[in-house]
Amino acid sequence: MGTALADLAVVIPVYNEQENIKSCVDTWSSVLSSLEISYKLIILNDGSWDETERVLSELPRVESITIIHKRNEGHGPTILQGYIHATETAEWVLQVDSDNEIPAEVFRNFWNSRHGQEAVLGFRTDRQQSFVRGIISRVAKSITGPLYNCHLKDVNIPFRLIRCDVLAPIIARIPRNTFAPNIIISGALSRIGATITELPVPFQPRTHGAASLNDISASTNAIRAFFQVTRNSRSFP
């Protein structure tokens, strides 16, 4: 008999988050324990060059925390690796970022809203973005509409709860080097007619560290993402 699946796996990609990651792990452990569910925190260190690895090494060695150190590949490939691991270990997967910009406390509402749904996706309210990133967000939403018949409010939201049996066949069709897999996943969920609930989440600017992409890098990668999202739209019926 195989090992029982956890109720939830939380995928947390990390890159140079020495000042944020401990509070992130502590907060999520507290929130999930209060819900009395079985969970795994899957923390993927994407080749951080600051003190992130040391901070992670000082976390308690408990069954609920899995730490994966990997070479730097970028946010997208790191998320995909986490998703693959999550679909093998849990019934549901939640992907969050480690910058604490969306408070963990709102997850309780997501968990309570999952019944009868295949995905519960957030959408950010009062988000403070630069002009360039605002354009990128609007372009991402505009291309997933015609390509995937997707009309979600926030197609690249990093706060998404998805049933693992629904996610597994989707990520199997997404190349590992994809820059923004969450956009494709949003489109694929819409294309296959998944039952989806959208819930607002507050957005609070990070208090420590800096975003890994500046506006120039974000613009360059947005062009790359555009072609990947377009090409991958042919992978889903």
Ordered list of secondary-structure elements with their pairings:
Elements: E1 6-14, H1 21-34, E2 39-46, H2 52-57, E3 65-70, H3 75-87, E4 90-95, H4 107-112, E5 119-125, H5 131-148, E6 160-163, H6 164-171, H7 181-191, E7 196-202, H8 215-232
Parallel strand pairs: 1-2, 1-4, 2-3, 5-7
Antiparallel strand pairs: 4-6, 5-6
Helicity range of the residues? 25-40%
**CATH C-level class:** Alpha Beta
CATH superfamily: Spore Coat Polysaccharide Biosynthesis Protein SpsA, Chain A
Stretches with pLDDT under 50, minimum 5 residues: none
Provide the domain count.
Answer: 1
- Secondary-structure-based class equals alpha/beta
Mean pLDDT: 89
Number of DSSP E strands: 7
Overall spatial form:
globular
Please give the order of strands in the largest beta sheet: 3-2-1-4-6-5-7
Q: Do you know the CATH architecture?
A: Alpha-Beta Complex
Gap from first CA to last CA? 35 Å
